[in-house]
Amino acid sequence: MGIDGESSTNPSSISVCNASVQEEQTLGRLQEELYNAETSVCLLKATLAEQMEKKVKVQNEMQSLQKRINKEGALTGIQKLVPLLESLKAMERQEFDCKSHCETKHSEVQEEITELEMILSSEIHHYSTDFDYPLQLSLERLNLAKSELAAKLRAILMLKWQLDAVPSQTELIQYERRFSELYRQIQEKLRKTRKYYATYNTLLEIKELMLKETSLLNSISSQFKDAITSTSGRTKLIDSMEGIVKGTQQKLDKVQLGLQAEQKVCDALKEKYALAVAEQRQCYSLLRAFQEECAKNEKLQREISS
């Protein structure tokens, strides 16, 4: 738009347009003069042809008269022949005058045509030289405008591709649903994995306790007979049993502390679960309202476009 505005107000372009208009007017005037000259030549040629026909007619009459003279006699033939000869001479003079006039007119017209062609060629050369520079400027501006238009088109296509890459509302909703499903699946797998690890650790502790218990029972069974026969042996056995009871009590206290910690974690998880359920219900209600608003928006857009 800016280039067209500059070219429309350029003085060189205005002068070129005026020169082209003057050239067209001069060319039309020259063509009109050429047409008039050609018309005059055609009229002269028609007049010459008419005189030639009259000449041929007179010659035929003279021949017929010559024949009649030979038949009727010389005197009457001569009397009829004299005016015919005079008219023939007059026609010959008219023919000569007509030919000379036609030749003169033809030469003048030919000179005028040559002169007009020279003037026309010189003016065309002059106007062509005047046209070259503005034409070159116009071509440069046109090429610049084409390059700018191509750059803008590339930018528009890039923006269009970026807009096409942006997901729509329906796709976003589908992605959200899919992510929610994947999150639930991952959380379920994590819960099962933790449960399996907890079960494994519990069984491992039970195994260790059973092994210790078996070892203790074997030790008591092997040392009971020797320890029960002496006072020092009984005292040592009782001390050993008290130590075992204290160790077992410490282990039980430790397990109780772990159980209480797990119970606290379980209670906290239950509270979080309740909060998450309430938040999920709120999200579902908001999602339902959002979907209804999206449907209304799409309906309004279809009505506006139609």
TrEMBL record:
Residue ranges annotated for the CCDC93 coiled-coil domain, each copy included: 13-301
Superkingdom of the organism of origin: Eukaryota
GO annotation (BP), single: Golgi to plasma membrane transport
Pfam families attached to this UniProt entry: CCDC93_CC
Descriptive protein name: CCDC93 coiled-coil domain-containing protein
Record organism: Dillenia turbinata
